[in-house]
Design a protein that fits this description.
single chain; 112 residues; alpha+beta
Length: 112
């Protein structure tokens, strides 16, 4: 997973591995993530308002990029790149160009 920071940073800032996907009711998910989510209960409830199911992504191998990649550079190297509203899939071509953008050294084999 590549992690993009929205405004005001507008920068690719980190990479991580999705270790687990948890699908629960919002109430059950909150009990699991409240100590590690980085959001308040009010923010969590507002985000999942009206939802019967909530999805949590558990990350490991989180690696901040030592040279974050600004949006302008992403658009130069990845033609047509638009910052995701929630998520987007990275193409194999984009993964192959990642070392050109930053000193990202972790393996991205198998990225879809």
């Amino acid at each position: 997973m590549l992690i993009y920071a929205t405004s005001p940073k507008k920068t690719l800032v980190a990479a991580a591995r999705v270790a687990r996907v948890q699908v629960e009711s919002p109430e059950t998910l909150w009990r699991s993530v409240k100590k590690v989510s980085g959001v308040t209960l009010q923010e969590f409830e507002a985000y999942f308002d009206g939802a019967k199911q909530a999805v949590g992504l558990w990350l490991d191998q989180v690696a901040p990029l030592s040279r974050p990649v600004p949006l302008e550079k992403l658009r130069q190297r990845w033609p047509g790149f638009r910052p995701p509203q929630s998520f987007c899939y990275v193409t194999q071509d984009q993964v192959q160009k990642l070392p050109e953008l930053t000193n990202f050294s972790q393996s991205c084999e198998g990225a879809k």
